[in-house]
């Protein structure tokens, strides 16, 4: 698995609900990472899992040497 991180806006439909949010996750692909991060945002903000949340920014893959850093 690869470690991915996101730092950017969060949108619900066409409305920005958070101008800047960041999160990290481990996943097998960038698509799975995006889904994991969306779920993390929903969970942290008390939203239903079925809520429509999109992360329009770039998800970056973190280098293995950076795993221990925060």
Fold topology:
Elements: E1 2-12, E2 15-27, H1 30-44, E3 59-61
Antiparallel strand pairs: 1-2, 1-3
Overall description:
The chain is α+β, with helices and mostly antiparallel strands and 70 residues long. The chain has one domain: Ubiquitin-like (UB roll) (Roll), CATH 3.10.20. The chain is built from one helix and three strands, in the order ββαβ. It has a three-stranded antiparallel beta sheet. The longest helix has 15 residues, at 30-44. It is globular and about 35 Å long. The relative contact order is 0.30.
Rg calculated over all Cα atoms: 12 Å
Q: Indicate the mean pLDDT.
A: 92
Class computed from helices, strands and strand pairing:
alpha+beta
CATH class: Alpha Beta
Strand content: 35-45%
Order of helices and strands: EEHE
Form type = globular
Domain count: 1
Oligomer: single chain
Main features:
1 helix; Ubiquitin-like (UB roll); 3 strands; 3-stranded antiparallel sheet; alpha+beta; 39% strand; 70 residues
Short account of what is shown:
This protein has about 70 residues and is of the alpha+beta class. The protein is built from 1 helix and 3 strands.
